[in-house]
Amino acid sequence: MDLDLSPKLAKKVYGDDGGSYYAWCPDELPMLRQGNIGAAKLALEKNGFALPRYSDSSKVAYVLQGAGVAGIILPESEEKVIAIKKGDAIALPFGVITWWYNKEDTELVVLFMGDTSKGHKPGQFTDFFLTGANGIFTGFTTDFVKRAWDVDDDTATALIGNQKGKGIVKLEANFKMPEPKPDHRKGMALNCEEAPLDTDIKNAGNVVLLNTKNLPLVGQVGMGADLVRLEGNAMCSPGFSCDSALQVTYIVKGSGRLQVVGVDGKRVLETIVKAGNLLIVPRFFVVSKIADPDGLSWFSIITTPNPMFTHLAGSIGAWKAISPEVLEAAFKVPAETEKLFRSKRTNDAIFFPPPK
Prior knowledge:
Elements: E1 11-16, E2 19-23, H1 30-35, E3 37-44, E4 48-55, E5 58-65, E6 67-73, E7 79-85, E8 88-92, E9 97-102, E10 108-115, E11 127-129, H2 136-139, H3 142-149, H4 153-161, E12 168-170, H5 182-185, E13 189-191, E14 199-201, E15 205-210, H6 218-221, E16 224-230, E17 235-241, E18 247-261, E19 267-274, E20 278-281, E21 286-302, E22 309-311, H7 324-331, H8 335-343, E23 351-352
Helix pairs in contact: 3-4, 7-8
């Protein structure tokens, strides 16, 4: 199985002084097309406004940097206007309309990863804009717009032609946008940097899982997610998704070594990953990472709402459950070697601190 699994950076698709939209291309990262996964980033400058849109794919959004406001309109529901900040994860099911706005000096950067199996192009998101130079109003003739929205000629002409921007625009500094409502945030977003840790290993690392328990909307999206933070020189146990899920990983911060082992015990990837990289681990392939001295953090989506993993090392490693005699025969080693092997990593689960 010859697969190009090497991590890639996103490329700019469009944008102007209000900000830019970047995406990963399935021609450069073939696993996107094979796995029916899309990935993109939205970067908004101060007063940048991402025009209202909907997509052909369900997604999970993750705020990589900055703070801002998001408008989210679920089908047949009121608009939710929520404050967003670094670390926030937001589930965006099919049919949801969103807009994004940044009024702060710091650039607002939002990552999108999702399922394109029902989309127009495997491995790519297709957005449909409600307004702007490529919005739906520009495609209808004036008489259709007049009749559908019951407006006069001048109003129809304004709706069709006034907004010359495409996708992202910059608003005047004094323009008043809706203020976020605290009660709208409940059930819409979870801050992964502030949420209770699902696993926390001293001097090694921690993880927060995003699933139907802490953000029920991920059930509608059909994907779970996690934020993993690995301390400097610590290691993440070799493991695989045991429920046939793909794991799509974006490196949020830091750098480190990564190895992936696939069919027939073949190492299919050995590389250095760093912030901004995106990579996809195929189903059942085993992956492990070792952080560089400054640590390594990554955000992943997993193509099932409540993912399950099998770890091959550590106190909960699958080896611990196998009979000693079976291991002796399987490795073709004497009992002493098997006992030594089993005696290690009895306290560390999933993450391993740096060697002393």
